């Protein structure tokens, strides 16, 4: 038999960026019988189809929204591959895509807040270092100019 990675169009253990999403989209419905693969059928293989859906999702996530035309096309693919009615496929696509877009927005928000926190911590650290350098320069200049003993500070 064919290995699962090869069946999904992956080579050398590599997968698409949205494998979990495409898995959720193309999971057979409990009440539907997916059509048997036709080796003589024209068109993209299942792996190529999944890769195309990955690209559509990536473009949509980058824009913050997946356009209706792409949603409709993905719903047609889901209906064809799972054997479920078109309306049910459209509902699944809308649910999965909306959830994915929201998760991506949440992840981007967390990344933004983390970047702000790191920037603030970096600025604070640089300020503390600048104050320490200024203090050391004043003490060193005083020692040089007035030959003052800095005592236990430099021992």
Layout of helices and strands, plus pairs?
Elements: H1 4-7, H2 19-26, H3 46-63, H4 68-82, H5 86-146
Helix pairs in contact: 4-5
Overview of this protein structure:
The protein is 68% helix and 0% strand. By secondary structure, the chain is mostly helical. Helix 4 packs across helix 5 (86-146).
Reading the helices and strands in chain order gives: HHHHH
The radius of gyration computed from the alpha-carbon positions, rounded to a whole number of angstroms, is 29 Å
Structural class: mainly alpha
Kindly report how far apart the N and C termini lie. Answer: 75 Å
Report strand %. Answer: under 5%
Principal-axis shape equals rod-shaped
Mean pLDDT: 81
Which segments are poorly predicted (pLDDT under 50) over 5 or more consecutive residues?
A: 1-13
The percent range for helix content is 55-70%
Number of separate helices:
5
Sheet with most strands: none
Strand segment tally:
0
Short synopsis of the structure:
By secondary structure, the protein is mostly helical. It has helices spanning 4-7, 19-26, 46-63, 68-82, 86-146. Helix 4 packs across helix 5.
